[in-house]
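[Discussion] Sanity-checking designs against the backbone

I'm trying to build intuition for which residues belong where. Below is a structure token string of 312 positions. I'd appreciate it if someone posts a full sequence so I can compare it with mine line by line.
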């Protein structure tokens, strides 16, 4: 069932409240990618307050890395730092346990960037997070960002600039290009949420819509979708139920895909009319959104919209 209003105290609100502290830990910080991206997130200004190492092996004895404390568990990290968010950079079969450990320690917002998380694990993770009243963004997401404040994940800094466009995206690569073009033409983002391209995930387009619609910093919403699944159709249903929705502009990748062929993501597969570009276009346009099959068309429409002309 599509949720048309935010859950009470939904941790996704942390991204939309400029006064909310966002102390963050990195699960897997002693790994090569964990260390690298912890440094990049810190360099951007994200409040990275520490990290965790695996419970076994050589890295478990590390107590500090690049000036950040390293803990044996999320619970120890939360107790010592007051962290409310985490970014997990762990192997696919470790993602479920990383999510479980994080929410049990009191982490409210968990971002998992790893591709290839087993579907059965994703189903279990979604149930664990919902029961805990936490929020999971992932799997297979480039992360989330509040330009000028924080990025959680590996979203490229060159594609970030504070601005009036709220962005939600399935595809990492397509969203990098879309947002880079927004920056180049003088627009930027209020909040950028990568929901990921997996069929089973923690946060879907419809979940984020109420926050963007209520956010005073967001003048318009950009949805970067792709063929496969019914997430865009779900979003269209939520958009129709929204009171006074903001302008929505959508670019849908994969309009030339053949039936039954997976186009990169686990969720990007078309069977018959289900999940096709045309089906998504019809649903979104019926809800009042503008739909485009190219970034050029999307950017042109944004630059011409009266609400955004002054922003450039």
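Best answer:
Here's mine. Compare freely.
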């Amino acid at each position: 069932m599509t949720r048309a209003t935010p859950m009470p105290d939904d941790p996704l609100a942390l991204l939309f409240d400029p006064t909310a502290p966002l102390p963050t830990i990195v699960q897997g910080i002693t790994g090569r990618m964990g260390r690298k991206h912890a440094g990049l997130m810190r360099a951007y200004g994200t409040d990275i307050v520490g990290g965790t190492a695996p419970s076994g092996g050589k890295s478990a004895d590390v107590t500090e890395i690049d000036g950040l404390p390293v803990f044996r568990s999320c619970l120890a990290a939360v107790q010592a730092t007051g962290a409310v968010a985490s970014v997990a950079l762990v192997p696919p079969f470790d993602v479920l346990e990383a999510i479980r450990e994080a929410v049990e320690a009191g982490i409210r917002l968990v971002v998992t960037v790893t591709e290839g998380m087993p579907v059965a694990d994703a189903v279990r993770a979604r149930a664990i997070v919902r029961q805990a009243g936490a929020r999971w963004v992932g799997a297979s997401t480039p992360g989330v960002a509040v330009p000028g404040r924080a990025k959680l994940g590996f979203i490229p800094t060159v594609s970030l600039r504070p601005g009036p466009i709220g962005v939600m995206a399935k595809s990492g690569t397509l969203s990098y290009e879309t947002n880079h073009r927004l920056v180049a033409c003088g627009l930027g983002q209020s909040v950028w949420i990568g929901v990921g391209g997996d069929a089973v995930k923690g946060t879907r387009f419809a979940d984020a819509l109420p926050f963007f619609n209520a956010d005073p910093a967001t003048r318009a919403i950009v949805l970067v979708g792709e063929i496969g699944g019914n997430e865009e159709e779900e979003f269209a249903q939520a958009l129709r139920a929204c009171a006074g929705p903001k302008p929505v502009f959508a670019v849908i990748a994969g309009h030339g895909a053949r039936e039954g062929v997976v186009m990169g993501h686990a969720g990007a597969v078309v069977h018959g009319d289900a999940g096709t570009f045309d089906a998504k276009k019809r649903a979104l346009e019926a809800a009042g959104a503008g739909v485009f099959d190219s970034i050029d068309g999307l950017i042109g429409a944004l630059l011409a919209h009266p609400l955004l002309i002054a922003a450039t």
